[in-house]
Amino acid sequence: MLFTSNNALAHDLIWKPSVNRACDKLIVGGANGWEPVSYVDENGMPQGVAIEVLRHYAKNWGLETDIHLEIPWTRSLRMLETGQIDVIAGAYFTDQRNLEFIYSVPFANDDVMIFQHRDFPFRVSGISDLMGHRGARPQGGSYGDEIDRFAKQWLDMVYSPTGDRIFDVLLNGRVDYVMLGRYDGMANILNDKLDGIVLPVEPPLAVNKVYLIFSRNSPCLADTVTLNNLIGELDENGQLAQWVQLHLPSSNSN
Predict the structure, then answer these.
(1) Do 35 and 252 meet the contact criterion of CB atoms below 8 Å apart?
(2) C-alpha span between 249 and 230 (Å, rounded)
(3) For the segment 125-155, what is each residue's pLDDT rounded down to a tens digit?
(4) Residue 12: helix, strand or coil by DSSP?
(5) What is the model's pTM?
(6) CB–CB of 205/113 below 8 Å?
(7) Which one of 71, 137, 196, 203 counts the least CB within 10 Å of its CB?
(8) Is 228 helix (H, G, I), strand (E, B) or coil?
(9) Long-range pairs for 227-232 at CB < 8 Å and ≥24 separation?
(10) Which phi and psi (to 5°) does residue 23 adopt?
(11) Backbone phi, then psi, for 36, in 5-degree steps?
């Protein structure tokens, strides 16, 4: 079993039904370009493991899906808080988000990586080795509480609003490294033809589980228990692993 088994995060389900609509449609937000978790393909269609899970669930229970990966990440989180979006298709765990939203059980893992220019490498065996170097990371995202706290207190970081072009600041010398999820970074390398120019540094800073997060104001909040059970079944029968392979950057046409 890859991801799910006993998970303490499926708890404290507080259902506050929306007065405006019933749960007949899942309104979905998420990150674009985060292959294999969530992305938009060359035909403009939302794809990814998280999207597969939500579409599979919606089909089984007769729900429509309305997917909006074009909405910026920070705005999506604000819309999730108010119930304008029911669920975010993929996010890491943080204590603050756990207070504001409801987490599913995890459905994937992603490594938090440091990416460097091949001509200007430096040794990184842990996050403290980044001190004294300037880095970049996507604006509005989180890599978990421990990394976020250390970065805020000790690191010189540029926050990029354009995650799909974040390596530009590394190529033009504005920063010494970029902090990204492995999947996100490798997708950018493939799409921007930077193989052999921008390199991931092993080992990863952290391995983060990836979850769906629901609005506490969603009329579909009560369905998260059923969705968690489905994620467990998809893990046990190998379907999640198949979807990960299907939606890796080398496997799709994005």
Answers:
(1) yes
(2) 25
(3) 999 999 999 999 988 788 989 999 999 999 9
(4) coil
(5) 0.80
(6) yes
(7) 196
(8) helix
(9) 227/53, 227/57, 227/104, 228/4, 228/7, 228/10, 228/104, 228/105, 230/53, 230/56, 230/57, 230/60, 231/3, 231/4, 231/53, 231/104, 231/105, 231/106, 231/107, 232/4, 232/5, 232/105
(10) -85, 80
(11) -95, 10
Instruction: Give the pairing type, strands 64-68 and 25-29.
Output: parallel
Chain mean position to CA 173: 27
For the record, the structure tokens of 214 come out as 């629901």
Judged by average pLDDT, the poorest of 37-41, 171-175, 190-194, 218-222 is 218-222
Where are the strands (E) in the chain, listed by range?
25-29, 39-40, 46-47, 64-68, 87-91, 101-103, 108-117, 134-138, 156-160, 177-181, 198-215
Instruction: Return the bridge partners of 114, or none.
Output: 179, 201
Q: What angle do CA 121, 125, 127 make, to 5 degrees?
A: 95
User: Amino acid identity, residue 148?
Assistant: D
Q: What average pLDDT does the structure give for the chain? A: 88
Answer yes or no: are the C-beta atoms of 146 and 112 closer than 8 Å: no
The one-letter amino acid code at 132 reads G
Residue appearing with tokens 């990966």: 69
- How much is the pLDDT for 87? 97
pLDDT, tens digit, for every residue of 38-83?
A: 999 999 999 999 999 999 999 988 999 999 999 999 899 999 999 9
